Amino acid sequence: MNERAMVVVGAGQGGLQMAESLRAEGWTGPIRLFGDEPTPPYNRPPLSKAALSGESGPEHLVIRGADFFAKKGIDLATGTRVAAIDRAAKEVVLADGSRVAYEGLALATGSRARTLPLPGADLDGVVTLRTLADALDLKARLATARAVAVVGGGFIGLEVAASARKAGVAVTLIEALPRLMARAVSETISSWYADLHARHGVRVLVGTGVTGFAGEGGRVTAVETSAGPIAADVVVVGVGVIPDDDLARACGLACDRGVIVDDCSRTSDPAIVALGDCATRRLADGSLRRLESVQNAVEQAKSGAAWLMGKERPFTAAPWFWSDQYDIKLQMAGLSAGQDRAVLRGSLEEEKFSLFYWREGRFVACDSINRPQDHMAARKILDKGASPTPDEITDPAFDLAAFVRAL
Amino acid sequence: MVEVVFIEPSGNEVTLEATEGWSLMQVATSSGVEGIDAECGGSCACATCHCYAEGEAAANLPPPSEGELAMLDNVAAERRPSSRLSCQIKAAPEIEGLILRVAEVQS
């Protein structure tokens, strides 16, 4: 009766994967999956896309049906917050004070949307987008909005801008940095996307700082910016996330803007793993890298589950990401930050091209627009540690598929 | 409802009633059909919901889009003429009885 459970805190895609992987790895004891949102695990990426346009309702986003949890013996508790971790007793403490003893513990607490500590930030109509509830709220607001301002030209901001344009709403996008998606892609891609959004009627303001929000009767009416006031009755703030490492810090796990983990998802306590947005990974050179992606959450979950079952199975695959804006698919393989050489493959005019990147002579990343074959090839090349030359990549006759097959 | 059959990599057959308009990937993952990863949630960005379309109803499937074909070129398991990404197939009356054999590996 007092059998210890595998406890997973956080019921997003990563937490769900963790619970499933523990079963797949052979854990036959209880699995307790705690989520503080009211909904069972759902796909978060569509929240800024299909969920806003109405193509996907909540029922489409939920990953597993109710029967599944019973079938797998996963005890899912939604709307349940874990308040503390007692590492000495190996117990988690729920918000109602009850305790659950754990054999192994996985932290999949995710992240929360950053807000701007500016005057007027609490006005009605100034919103962030992180949860299904946020998306449903924003969708309802877009239905009656006259003008939307999006603060932040990263993936979330740009996807929201595209969704709002699809809904026929006027959109102004405000980015503080000189270019869009500056953390993720190269200048060529940034400027191509600025043009894309302009063509779809978005007013794109880069290099523009936000100083506050103006309102009337408690409702937002404008964003105050370095380029003057921008009228808006809905303002979506998409300026990144804060990793939710509160529980980990409170119980003394090593953290640095995220729970520090190794490539097996192990924290500084061998009985505790962490994964996904809340985890920051120590790399071989000692630096820390935190990624916000489905792949990262899923693969860290698989590695973490293996470790909790006593197996070392490091996650080493190259990172990959995607973003859907309008009818354009952007797929990213590897990390292009710090690249010193970029070459083009394909055609900008046909809206089918990739940029391949090198750093100090090594191939490090590839951004593809409507060229999924390049993206998939780049992932395989990165996983194998191979490095085609820039001359090969720019040669239209170079058979990339054959190069990959020969690896 | 549209009846579709999934054959898991173990050989286990799972018959499901699919709501019209749902993608067969969603139908499968909702019930926990083994072997479908579907990491991108149906965006045709990851090629981890690879199946082989079999049975008479396979002839009634709309052909894969250019984007799906490009992803199919890079699936982890063997690419066959019957290869499809289940996220790109919507449940519809004409595919009643479709059999989707889940690929052995997805990544």
Name some characteristics of this structure:
heterodimer, A: 407 residues, alpha/beta, 5-stranded parallel beta sheet, 27% helix, B: 107 residues, alpha+beta, 5-stranded mixed beta sheet, 2 helices, 22% strand, globular
Short description:
The complex is a heterodimer of chains A (407) and B (107). Chain A has 407 residues and is α/β, with parallel strands linked by helices.
Characterization of this structure:
The complex is a heterodimer of chains A (407) and B (107). Chain A is α/β, with parallel strands linked by helices. Chain A has 12 helices and 25 strands. Chain A has helices spanning 13-24, 50-53, 58-61, 66-72, 132-144, 155-166, 187-199, 246-250, 294-308, 372-384, 390-394, 400-405, and strands at 5-9, 31-34, 74-77, 82-86, 91-94, 99-107, 111-113, 126-127, 147-151, 170-174, 203-205, 210-216, 219-225, 228-231, 234-237, 241-243, 259-261, 272-274, 279-282, 288-289, 320-325, 328-334, 341-347, 352-359, 362-369. In chain A, strands 1, 2, 3, 4, 5, 6 and 18 form a 7-stranded mixed beta sheet that branches. With 107 residues, chain B is α+β, with helices and mostly antiparallel strands. Chain B contains 2 helices and 5 strands, in the order E-E-H-E-H-E-E. The model of chain B has no long low-confidence stretch (mean pLDDT 94). The interface between A and B is medium-sized, with 29 and 21 residues.
Itemize the secondary structure elements and their pairings.
The complex is a heterodimer of chains A (407) and B (107).
Chain A: E1 5-9, H1 13-24, E2 31-34, H2 50-53, H3 58-61, H4 66-72, E3 74-77, E4 82-86, E5 91-94, E6 99-107, E7 111-113, E8 126-127, H5 132-144, E9 147-151, H6 155-166, E10 170-174, H7 187-199, E11 203-205, E12 210-216, E13 219-225, E14 228-231, E15 234-237, E16 241-243, H8 246-250, E17 259-261, E18 272-274, E19 279-282, E20 288-289, H9 294-308, E21 320-325, E22 328-334, E23 341-347, E24 352-359, E25 362-369, H10 372-384, H11 390-394, H12 400-405
Chain B: E1 2-7, E2 13-18, H1 24-31, E3 50-54, H2 66-72, E4 83-85, E5 99-102
Parallel strand pairs in B: 1-5
Antiparallel strand pairs in B: 1-2, 3-4, 3-5
